[in-house]
């Protein structure tokens, strides 16, 4: 799992450092996270800090997202202590038509203490559609199918997807602006024949800086 | 008798107006006698003055008084002799037919026909780019003869033309030497020589030739009658931003709600709704604000063509200026001192 995380970071860094005259942006962001899983019912909510970074070279793009957050269990949760989340997402994109980008990527999420909740890693294949609604604003929506999620606690995943929505308002050049987005993730984990679905929502508000 | 009185009255008016002011006292007396219609005394005093060895304007005036007086007295031979002397001295000193008696005009015409002189030589004051223009040289001959026009000065001795002239002759000079190069600036003389059966006459017109660089043509930044068009325009306000934001927010949020697991609580809903609302609000505000300018392809293409035309014209101007910098502007004008 850690190897996957390191590989993702190295990939994002490699792409960023080879960039020359392209569009690069980074957006430090605050994150609100809500996590649920069923087994013994787990409901965690909390806040963290992370960021979004990206690079675009013509029709090609790469986006990396990550956050560190501390999530606290609510009253009905079997857990009694807070859980620290580390998550990294990488998406490689190719514009297939105007405003539609095919995205493939990977994601990994680690929990501390280990086994307090599931660590998970998966590959994603999806589509992102982005539209400029004004020179200073754009919105996007994305959805992806999550391929073969792997859990550190075992089990298999059937249906798994993620959905996202984002808005950017800022300078026409993209040099600075405000970013607001959420990503919703559901993975239908099952052990033997019993379903133990997992849900995650990450909302981010960040200040985007571009070059 | 009555006609003679009328002519005499006319001469009283015409005489003083046509003869130049005199310096020589005898010429002045002759002039006074002529004005007093005492032609015998006028002719006598004019002859007397000429015997003193007059020159210049006094000599011309003395010969005029003598010639006009002899003609008025009907002394045709003496008048003819005096007119010929006057014509050689000043071929252009011609009595005005409107002011002088026909007898005088007739005597002058007869005398003129009997001699060969170059009259009214003139070089047009002009300015032209070397090789692209010329100065007109004109003259008259008193009777048909062969004329030769030559320009001399500044080591140049260039015969422009030699031809038969009935009365008026004209020659063009392009201010180029034999090799086709512009003649150096300085003083020149245009010599017009008439020759016929051993008789000849020469008239000279002193001229000055000056040279200056040819003005270059300024480059242009516009073409008259054609102006640039705005390359973008503000479209009419519409609700597209709200529509797009609403579509994306509705699609995403609706799918999220529809595909979420119902038994896992609803703490995730508020952030999702907040982000969706932000997207909708952004779309709404962008719909209300003044629309962004959008490019007008037709105008952009038109402006590109216009810029191309201006660039092409400026390239031509640059080429033309390059040629002009190798050219000289030649000015030709008669010099002070007049014709001889």
Structural class of chain B: alpha+beta
Order of strands, main sheet of chain A, comes to 1-2-3-4-5-6-7-8-9-11
CATH top level of chain A? Mainly Beta
Helical/strand content category of chain A? mainly beta
The radius of gyration of chain B is 45 Å
Residues in helix, % of chain B: 40-55%
Written description of the protein model:
The complex is a heterodimer of chains A (211) and B (340). In chain A, 8% of the residues lie in helices and 71% in strands. Chain A is mainly β and 211 residues long. Chain A has a 10-stranded antiparallel beta barrel with strand order 1-2-3-4-5-6-7-8-9-11. Chain A starts with a helix and ends with a strand. Chain B is α+β, with helices and mostly antiparallel strands. Chain B has 3 domains: 2-114, Serine Threonine Protein Phosphatase 5, Tetratricopeptide repeat; 118-211 and 330-334, Immunoglobulin-like; 232-322, no CATH class. In chain B, the strands form 3 sheets. In chain B, strands 2-11-8-7-4-5 form a 6-stranded antiparallel sheet, with no helix packed on it. A 3-stranded antiparallel sheet of chain B has the order 1-3-6, with no helix packed on it. A two-stranded antiparallel ribbon of chain B has the order 9-10. In chain B, helix 4 (56-73) packs across helix 6 (102-114) and helix 7 packs antiparallel against helix 8. Chain A binds chain B through residues 32, 34, 36-38, 41, 43, 45, 74, 129, 131, 133-137, 139-141, 143, 161, 163-167, 169, 180-182, 184, 186, 197, 199, 201, 203, and chain B through 240-241, 244-245, 248-249, 251-253, 255-256, 259-261, 263-265, 267-268, 271-272, 274-276, 278-279, 282-283, 286, 289, 291-292.
Describe the protein's topology:
The complex is a heterodimer of chains A (211) and B (340).
Chain A: H1 2-17, E1 23-37, E2 42-57, E3 60-73, E4 83-97, E5 100-112, E6 120-134, E7 137-151, E8 156-170, E9 176-191, E10 194-195, E11 198-210
Antiparallel strand pairs in A: 1-2, 1-11, 2-3, 3-4, 4-5, 5-6, 6-7, 7-8, 8-9, 9-10, 9-11
Chain B: H1 2-18, H2 25-35, H3 39-51, H4 56-73, H5 76-89, H6 102-114, E1 118-123, E2 126-129, E3 135-141, E4 145-153, E5 156-165, E6 168-173, E7 186-196, E8 199-213, E9 232-233, H7 240-259, H8 269-288, E10 294-295, H9 297-325, E11 328-334
Antiparallel strand pairs in B: 1-3, 2-11, 3-6, 4-5, 4-7, 7-8, 8-11, 9-10
Helix pairs in contact in B: 2-3, 2-4, 3-4, 4-5, 4-6, 5-6, 7-8
């Amino acid at each position: 799992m850690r190897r996957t995380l390191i590989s993702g970071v190295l990939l994002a860094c490699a792409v960023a450092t080879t960039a020359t005259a392209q569009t690069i942006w980074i957006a430090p962001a605050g994150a609100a996270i809500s996590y649920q899983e069923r087994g013994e019912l787990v409901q965690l909510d909390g806040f963290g800090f992370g960021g979004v970074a990206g690079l675009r070279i013509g029709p090609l793009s790469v986006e990396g997202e990550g956050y560190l957050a501390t999530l606290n269990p609510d009253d009905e949760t079997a857990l009694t202590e807070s859980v620290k989340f580390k998550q990294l997402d990488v998406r490689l994109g190719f514009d297939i038509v105007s405003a539609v980008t095919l995205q493939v990527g990977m994601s990994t999420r680690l929990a501390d203490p280990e086994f307090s909740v599931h660590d998970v890693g998966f590959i994603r294949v999806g589509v992102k559609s982005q539209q400029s609604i004004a020179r200073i604003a754009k919105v996007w929506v994305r959805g992806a199918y999550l391929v073969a999620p792997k859990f550190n606690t075992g089990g298999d995943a059937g249906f798994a997807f993620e959905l996202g929505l984002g808005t950017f308002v800022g300078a026409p050049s993209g040099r600075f602006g405000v970013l607001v987005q959420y990503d919703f993730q559901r993975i239908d984990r099952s052990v033997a024949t019993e379903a133990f679905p997992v849900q995650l929502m990450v909302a981010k508000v960040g200040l985007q800086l571009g070059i | 008798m009555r006609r003679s009185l009328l002519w005499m009255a006319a001469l009283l008016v015409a005489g003083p107006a046509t003869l130049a002011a005199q310096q020589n006292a005898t010429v002045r007396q002759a002039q006074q006698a002529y004005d007093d219609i005492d032609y015998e005394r006028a002719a006598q005093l004019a002859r007397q003055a000429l015997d003193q060895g007059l020159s210049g304007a006094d000599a011309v005036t003395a010969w005029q008084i003598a010639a006009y007086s002899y003609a008025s007295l009907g002394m045709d031979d003496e008048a003819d002799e005096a007119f010929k002397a006057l014509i050689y001295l000043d071929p252009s000193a011609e009595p005005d037919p409107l002011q002088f008696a026909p007898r005088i005009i007739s005597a002058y015409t007869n005398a003129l026909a009997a001699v060969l002189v170059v009259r009214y030589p003139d070089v047009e004051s002009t300015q032209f780019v070397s090789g692209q223009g010329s100065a007109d040289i004109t003259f008259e001959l008193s009777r048909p003869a062969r004329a030769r026009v030559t320009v001399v000065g500044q080591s140049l001795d260039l015969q422009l033309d030699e031809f038969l002239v009935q009365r008026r002759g004209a020659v063009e000079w392009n201010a180029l030497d034999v090799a086709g190069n512009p003649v150096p600036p300085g003083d020149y003389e245009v010599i017009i020589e008439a020759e016929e059966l051993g008789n000849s006459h020469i008239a000279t017109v002193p001229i000055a030739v000056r040279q200056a660089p040819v003005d270059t043509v300024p480059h242009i930044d516009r073409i008259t009658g054609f102006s640039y068009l705005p390359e973008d325009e503000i479209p009419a306000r519409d609700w597209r931003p709200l529509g797009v934001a609403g579509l994306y927010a509705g699609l995403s949020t609706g799918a999220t709600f529809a595909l979420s697991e119902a038994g896992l609580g609803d703490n995730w809903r508020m952030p999702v709704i907040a982000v969706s609302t932000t997207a909708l609000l952004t779309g709404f505000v962008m719909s209300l604000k003044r629309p962004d300018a959008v490019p007008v392809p037709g105008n952009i293409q038109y402006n590109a063509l216009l810029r191309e035309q201006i660039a092409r014209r400026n390239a031509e101007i640059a080429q033309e200026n390059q040629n002009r910098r190798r050219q000289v502007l030649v000015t030709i004008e008669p010099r002070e001192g007049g014709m001889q």
